[in-house]
Amino acid sequence: MSLQELETQLRPIFLAALAGDAAAYRLFLDTISLRLRGYLRQMLARAGRSEASEAEDVLQETLLALHLSCHTYDAASPVTAWAHAIARYKLVDHLRRSGRHVGALPLEDEAHQLAGPPESAAVDARLDLARAMEALPERTRRLIDQVKLQGTSVADAATAAGMTETAAKVAIHRGLQAMAQFLSKRRKQP
Fold first, then answer.
1. Cα(15)–Cα(19) distance, integer angstroms
2. Measured between alpha carbons, how far is 131 from 104 in angstroms, rounded to an integer?
């Protein structure tokens, strides 16, 4: 199945799932799982990892993240690009946790290709933000995600990270500055 066919099939299913259709949600998860499993196996193989159970572990983390991040989906964007971007975050997190260098993963991988035509500025901006977040330390990235994207209070996010509230605020502030600097450099590139 081509990517366009997959997007055409998944988009209405996912929108129905967001509207509360449990059967559509199950179908979306089953369908996207097949695509993401292949993607994760391919990317893990590129990183020198070929154990099927490892891909399954990352897939389960990705499916959980998809569930928890449904509110971040922009209906104007391809659902496949959104799902693949989350899968890539989870893959990078997994490789970092396991002590593998993630530099072996190409930035211009399938998730970028799935983003759609170049005229889709919103999708390009989301991918730039994703790359800016990816450049941050894991704890800072998690704090920004929890506080700025998920709406968690700074106090709760700090507690979850094992930090003081002041330290969490500083980490978030510095992380946002680093992201702004990263994005500024990207805009200057041809």
1. 6
2. 15
pLDDT in tens, the chain (190 residues): 677 888 888 899 999 998 888 999 999 999 999 889 888 888 888 877 777 788 898 999 998 988 888 888 888 888 988 898 889 888 888 888 776 554 555 444 444 444 444 334 445 566 677 778 888 898 998 898 888 877 889 999 999 999 999 999 999 899 888 888 877 775 555 4
Q: What's the DSSP call for residue 145?
A: I
Residue with tokens 């930090």: 163
- pTM comes to 0.54
Cα(91)–Cα(93) distance, rounded to whole angstroms?
A: 5
CA separation for the pair 37, 46 (Å, rounded) = 14
User: Helix, strand or coil for residue 102?
Assistant: helix
Neighbours of 24 (CB within 10 A): 17
CA atoms of 117 and 127, how far apart (whole Å): 13
Could you tell me if 56 and 87 are in contact, meaning their C-beta atoms sit under 8 angstroms apart?
A: no
Question: Among residues 142, 173, 174, which one has the least CA distance to residue 157?
Answer: 142
CB–CB of 3/114 below 8 Å?
yes
If you compute the radius of gyration of the chain from its CA atoms, what whole number of angstroms results?
A: 17
CB-based contact 50:101 (threshold 8 Å): no
